[in-house]
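Predict the structure of ABC transporter ATP-binding protein.
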Amino acid sequence: MSPTISAEELRLRYRNTTAVDGLTLTLDGPGIYGLIGRNGSGKTSLMSVLAGFRRASGGRARVNGQPVFENPRILPEICLIRGGADTVEHELRNRVSDALKLAADLRPNWDADYADELVSKFGIDRTKRVVQLSTGQRSALASILGLASRAPVTLLDETYLGMDAPARYAFYDELLRDSMAHPRMLIVSSHLVDEVSPILERVVMIDQGRLLLHEDAETLRARGATVSGPADTVADFVSGRTVLNERRLGRSASAVVYGELAEADRAHARESGLELEPVPLQDLFVHLTKGENR
Ligand SMILES: Nc1ncnc2c1ncn2[C@@H]1O[C@H](COP(=O)(O)OP(=O)(O)OP(=O)(O)O)[C@@H](O)[C@H]1O
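Done. Here is the predicted structure for ABC transporter ATP-binding protein.
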């Protein structure tokens, strides 16, 4: 069955804070979805409700058409891994091998061979207690628990936090490789947008507990362009447009412009010796979530 998630007018309130504020969203089909938002925008809260960790204060959260909270028929289909090193906090006294065994018992689609492969790849000593692992190794272990669960709906909430850059890139590669080999819905939250964006197929951007956009990553990147070439020509071309970012290097410059470019504009840019590339998601994210643009 193709995985689906639907949120209808979803709300989550803590005592004084509305973390998810009437959010309506449908995610349909396998792929890597990026859940992007600023600090405190409600990513963790939204994932917690979608995974049945928390009861919604209002609205509905469904996975494959089924309500999630306290629903034993659907919960085994969902795996939420939260916040890297903290995820395995309850297993600190256990050995890595015990943590893997526990996951094998709990997860119906657990792939033990794949878990072993990842444990070797990330250089984790399975005989150590979890408490003896470094922060980055604990994050890697949490990510392994998420990937090897092969759950039809897997939510990875900043699992890479604590990993160094080579480990994070190895994790992104692994995510991409495994999602192609075993298509499922993988939802990755992040504010390291630059790093994660190359592997995203769809982007869900939230802000202040509300949905800002849900779009195919390619369509989103076409919402603007990076223009580069001789500084004067770049300046002429971007004049009168919304410029998100500008860089100058000697006599060359590059500028990120927001807003779709007509085919005639693109042709004109090329004839003037300018190069056009898609807009970086990071720049769009910063622009769309800036106070005055909210
Ligand atoms: N247990 C809690 N009690 C009270 N307020 C909370 C609780 N957890 C989160 N909040 C508040 O809810 C809002 C959303 O928090 P949430 O952790 O979902 O955001 P986030 O997008 O995951 O943030 P970050 O990127 O910093 O991890 C914030 O204002 C936060 O202070």
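The longest helix spans residues 165-181.
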